[in-house]
Design a protein that fits this description.
197 residues; alpha+beta
């Protein structure tokens, strides 16, 4: 009888999220992947903000030169058009600042040790029409003190299939015999905080 060699996985390591989908949960890998991804997003958003500020400065310098040149040439309509360009570009900086702030908030949540889960249908806590156990309410109070999450939701047990899904704002209670999960929301991502029966 011949012995067969043990099966060795020669494939490169899969990304952490793929492992979750395949059911091979390796928490440290997933946490590291989330952290590195969040750091990369912060860096990208920071670079985009720096570029937007540089573009704004160039645009403002060009507009000032245009106004002066139009006035020197005696062209009032050109001066008005260049004057209007003086105010442009500031809103782009505001959008990039907001995106950077959201990315930094997400990174803070990851650094605090929370792990995001796939988004699932859930009810905002203030819209839930059933009692939440005191322990879960204490978790909400504690997390509000830390200020990491924008708001809190409870998974309502809805089937995620499109033909059965009801948006959270239309539902007021969870399905019976399903265990609710309390989650904090940061930058649109869900972070589990507590569950109960």
């Amino acid at each position: 009888m011949t012995e067969t060699a043990p099966i060795v996985n020669t494939e490169p390591r899969l990304p952490a999220i793929r492992k979750l989908v395949l059911g091979k949960l390796e928490v440290e890998d997933y946490q590291r992947s989330c952290y590195l991804g969040a750091q990369a997003i912060v860096m990208t958003r920071s670079q985009a903000l720096t570029e937007a500020k540089a573009n704004y400065t160039r645009t403002q310098d060009e507009a000032k030169r245009g106004v002066e040149a139009a006035r020197a040439a005696g062209e009032p309509e050109q001066a008005r058009m260049w004057t209007r360009r003086l105010g442009t570009g500031r809103s782009a900086i505001g959008r990039h600042e907001a995106a950077l702030q959201r990315a930094q908030s997400f990174l803070e949540v990851i650094e605090a040790g929370y792990l995001p889960i796939p988004r699932i249908p859930a009810l905002r806590v203030e819209l839930l029409r059933e009692t939440i156990p005191p322990e879960a309410l204490e978790v909400i109070a504690s997390e509000k003190e830390h200020g990491l999450f924008e708001y809190f939701v409870v998974a309502n047990g809805e089937d995620a299939r499109a033909d059965h899904y009801r948006p959270w704002h239309n539902a007021t209670s969870r399905i019976a015999n399903r265990d609710p999960i309390l989650m904090g929301i940061c930058n649109g991502e869900m972070f589990p905080l507590a569950w109960w029966r």
